Amino acid sequence: MKFGHFDDARKEYVINTPKTPYPWINYLGNEQFFGLMSNTAGGYCFYRDARLRRITRYRYNNIPIDNGGRYFYLHDNGDYWTPGWMPVKRELDFYECRHGLGYTSITGERNGVRVNQLALVPLQFNGEVHKVTVSNTSGAEKQVKLFSFIEFCLWNAHDDMTNFQRNLSTGEVEVKGSVVYHKTEYRERRNHYAFYSVNSPIDGFDTDRESFLGAYNGLDTPQVVEAGQASNSVASGWSPIASHAIHITLQPGEEKSFIFVLGYVENPEEEKWEAPNVINKTRAQAMIDRFATDADVEKAMADLSDYWNGLLSKYMIESRDEKLDRMVNIWNPYQCMVTFNMSRSASYFESGIGRGMGFRDSNQDLLGFVHQIPERARERIIDIASTQFEDGSAYHQYQPLTKKGNNEVGSGFNDDPLWLILGTSAYIKETGDFSILDEQVPFDCDPNNTATLFEHLKRSFYHVIHNRGPHGLPLIGRADWNDCLNLNCFSKEPGESFQTTANIEGRVAESVFIAGLFVFVGPDFVELCKRRGLDQEAAEAQRYIDEMRKITLEHGFDGDWFLRAYDHYGQKVGSKENEEGQIFIEPQGICVMAGIGVEEGLAEKSLNAVQERLETDYGIVLNNPAFTKYYLNLGEISTYPPGYKENAGIFCHNNPWVMMAETVIGRGDRAFELYKKIAPAYLEDISEIHRMEPYVYAQMIAGKDAVREGEAKNSWLTGTAAWNYVAITQAILGIQPDFDGLKIDPCIPKDWEGYTITRVFRGDTLNIAVKNPNRVSKGVQSITVNGQAIEGNVVPVAGDGGTYQIEVVLG
Amino acid sequence: MKFGHFDDARKEYVINTPKTPYPWINYLGNEQFFGLMSNTAGGYCFYRDARLRRITRYRYNNIPIDNGGRYFYLHDNGDYWTPGWMPVKRELDFYECRHGLGYTSITGERNGVRVNQLALVPLQFNGEVHKVTVSNTSGAEKQVKLFSFIEFCLWNAHDDMTNFQRNLSTGEVEVKGSVVYHKTEYRERRNHYAFYSVNSPIDGFDTDRESFLGAYNGLDTPQVVEAGQASNSVASGWSPIASHAIHITLQPGEEKSFIFVLGYVENPEEEKWEAPNVINKTRAQAMIDRFATDADVEKAMADLSDYWNGLLSKYMIESRDEKLDRMVNIWNPYQCMVTFNMSRSASYFESGIGRGMGFRDSNQDLLGFVHQIPERARERIIDIASTQFEDGSAYHQYQPLTKKGNNEVGSGFNDDPLWLILGTSAYIKETGDFSILDEQVPFDCDPNNTATLFEHLKRSFYHVIHNRGPHGLPLIGRADWNDCLNLNCFSKEPGESFQTTANIEGRVAESVFIAGLFVFVGPDFVELCKRRGLDQEAAEAQRYIDEMRKITLEHGFDGDWFLRAYDHYGQKVGSKENEEGQIFIEPQGICVMAGIGVEEGLAEKSLNAVQERLETDYGIVLNNPAFTKYYLNLGEISTYPPGYKENAGIFCHNNPWVMMAETVIGRGDRAFELYKKIAPAYLEDISEIHRMEPYVYAQMIAGKDAVREGEAKNSWLTGTAAWNYVAITQAILGIQPDFDGLKIDPCIPKDWEGYTITRVFRGDTLNIAVKNPNRVSKGVQSITVNGQAIEGNVVPVAGDGGTYQIEVVLG
Question: Which part of the chain is the Glycosyl hydrolase 94 supersandwich domain (chains A, B) (predicted)?
Answer without folding.
Answer: 11-290
